[in-house]
């Protein structure tokens, strides 16, 4: 499937941004221009079932296949958030970026020791401004507006396809390319023990203190600081 992409900049190096569940390329509205200012041509995709990309069957491997089908080979860096991090990890061997950044990726068993069931996100489909603001008190008004717009364009079947019997811990055994895992200090996916295990497996791990799961919207400056040396 060819995914819808949005582009910023015209630099000689390519950076790719892959969003998380319920979102689309608009989530990167500050990140894209910031990377373009650093000399990148920035491509942000809409995963299938999100934004302007087609609908169809859904599954972790299909999200990954679409990245391989859509994106140029061997980009300088790919940044994947949450579901985007999961899709990237399944596509990285074929994409072969020089560097991969996984922002609070949806791999792990979560803080409860059980896989986080994406079905818990279904009620957000009908979220109003008060609900979005309540869950994300640090977001700008622009990010709240974007979240409401992306929720309207989101196909909830994407979550159901990763739910129930499809839940599993997909943490990679080792990085395929030099890889950073950026963890939300106030997120729900990683324990300290899980972070230590990622280090043992060969990932560089950095935590953004105080940030919620969507790090780049919760603490934009902390997100960029956490990428120093990687972008």
TrEMBL record:
<feature type="domain" description="AB hydrolase-1">
    <location>
        <begin position="16"/>
        <end position="219"/>
    </location>
</feature>
<dbReference type="InterPro" id="IPR029058">
    <property type="entry name" value="AB_hydrolase_fold"/>
</dbReference>
<dbReference type="InterPro" id="IPR000073">
    <property type="entry name" value="AB_hydrolase_1"/>
</dbReference>
<dbReference type="Pfam" id="PF12697">
    <property type="entry name" value="Abhydrolase_6"/>
</dbReference>
<dbReference type="GO" id="GO:0016787">
    <property type="term" value="F:hydrolase activity"/>
</dbReference>
<dbReference type="InterPro" id="IPR050228">
    <property type="entry name" value="Carboxylesterase_BioH"/>
</dbReference>
<protein>
    <submittedName>
        <fullName>Alpha/beta hydrolase</fullName>
    </submittedName>
</protein>
<keyword id="KW-0378">Hydrolase</keyword>
């Amino acid at each position: 499937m060819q995914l819808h992409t949005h582009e910023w900049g015209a630099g000689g190096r390519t950076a790719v941004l892959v969003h998380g569940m319920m979102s689309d390329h608009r989530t990167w509205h500050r990140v894209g221009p910031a990377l373009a200012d650093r000399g990148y041509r920035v491509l942000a995709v809409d995963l299938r079932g999100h934004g302007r990309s087609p609908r169809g069957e859904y599954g972790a491997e299909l999200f990954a296949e679409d990245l391989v089908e859509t994106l140029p080979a061997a980009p300088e860096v790919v940044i994947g958030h949450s579901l985007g991090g999961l899709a990237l990890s399944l596509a990285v061997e074929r994409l072969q970026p020089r560097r991969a950044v996984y922002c609070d990726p949806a791999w792990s068993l979560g803080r409860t020791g059980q896989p986080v069931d994406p079905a818990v996100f279904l009620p957000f489909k009908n979220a109003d401004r008060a609900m979005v603001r309540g869950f994300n008190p640090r977001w700008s008004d622009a990010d709240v507006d974007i979240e409401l717009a992306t929720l309207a364009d989101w196909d909830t079947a994407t979550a159901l396809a990763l739910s129930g019997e499809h839940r599993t811990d997909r943490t990679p055994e080792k990085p395929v390319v030099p890889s950073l895992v950026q963890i939300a200090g106030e997120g729900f996916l990683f324990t300290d023990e899980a972070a230590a295990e990622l280090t043992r497996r060969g990932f560089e791990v950095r935590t953004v203190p105080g940030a919620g799961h969507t790090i780049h919207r919760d603490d934009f400056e902390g997100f960029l600081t956490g990428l120093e040396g990687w972008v």
